[in-house]
Design goal:
About 35% of the residues lie in helices and about 20% in strands. The chain is of the alpha/beta class.
Length: about 300
């Protein structure tokens, strides 16, 4: 089966016996990024969102200052076609507005306060500097951190954001993020990833999966979008199908406190060329457990905790 072109390049160029050191010295930034995915990655989920309002500049500033490997974010489109960094489809939870984000222009969204809610919900971490925090554009994030950061970007709700993939790829190309090994694009929607791959085959992609009990049979696990069988039934061929377009896989590890995957799942994915990143892990004991399993990275709201363990 055809493999992701960059994975093939790394496999051939970086693991060629005696030529390995030469290949490493000559690796492009993009090839080096893929090589780095084999080591442990600290992924700052919506920035340092355990310490500052999620998806705001304050949260990304903290995560970057601490040295997280990736700044994780979700992108959506405004009604006037601007790429904004925001997780929910609705703006109610993390702003003083209401309704769906794609029904607002950028100017209207910029008038919202996306910081005060955090102070109200986290009195012990409240900071007056968070009040009035604005929704970010992807452009603003790129302008702030440029090529000094790596970005882990989810195409959020692509069916509600027609044209999202085209706008994102255009922005990545304009800022030269791809060839400089600065970006991963993730999605639960396989179709969205395949569209990104069609637009630019060099963008490293992460297929997100979510395992939970079936509504019809609570004892049977299913993957949310059907992209794979249940973990107990997954085969090498299933992983290879993903590896044909993706550079890795992102997964939950538990559902309602019960494990849905195990160390064998991690190992099998890796043996089929897919580094595994697990979301969203905030407790130190769980971080340690998953590191013992050999995962390649963790999404976390507390990058400071994870960085301390990783060191």
């Amino acid at each position: 089966m055809q493999r992701h072109p960059l994975i093939t390049a790394v496999s051939l160029g970086l693991f060629a016996g005696a030529a390995t050191s030469t290949a490493l010295a000559e690796a492009t930034p993009l090839e080096q990024q893929l090589k780095d995915l084999e080591s442990f990655q600290v992924i700052a989920h919506r920035g340092a969102s355990g310490h500052a309002p999620e998806s705001t500049m304050a949260a990304y500033e903290l995560a970057h200052e601490w040295g997280a490997d990736y700044l994780e974010l979700d992108v959506q489109l405004t009604s006037d076609g601007e790429l904004v960094v925001f997780h929910d489809d609705a703006i109610d939870r993390t702003s003083d507005g209401e309704g769906h984000i794609h029904d607002y222009t950028l100017e209207e969204l910029k008038a919202l306060d996306t910081g005060t809610w955090f102070n109200d919900a986290n009195v012990d971490k409240a900071d007056t500097a968070f009040e009035g925090a604005q929704i970010l554009t992807l452009e603003e994030l790129f302008e702030r951190f440029g090529h000094d950061a790596r970005y882990y970007i989810e195409t959020k709700s692509p069916l509600l954001n027609p044209g999202l993939e085209e706008a994102l790829v255009e922005a990545l190309e304009e800022h030269e993020m791809i060839e400089n090994g600065r970006v991963l694009v993730q999605s639960f929607e396989q179709g969205s990833l395949l569209k990104v791959h069609e637009l630019n085959e060099h963008i490293p992609l992460i297929q997100l999966v979510w395992y939970s009990p079936s509504e019809e049979d609570n004892d049977r696990l299913v993957e949310w979008t059907g992209v794979t069988p249940a973990p107990a039934d997954i085969t090498d061929e299933d992983f290879q199908t993903i590896a044909a377009y993706a550079a890795g896989i992102g997964t939950n590890v538990t559902y309602n406190g019960e494990d849905v995957i195990d160390a064998d799942f991690i190992r099998q994915a890796q043996e089929n060329g897919l580094p595994v990143h697990v979301y969203t892990i905030n407790e130190t004991d769980e971080m340690k457990r998953l590191q013992d399993w050999g995962v390649n990275g963790l999404f976390t709201d507390y990058a400071d905790r994870l960085l301390e363990l990783a060191d």
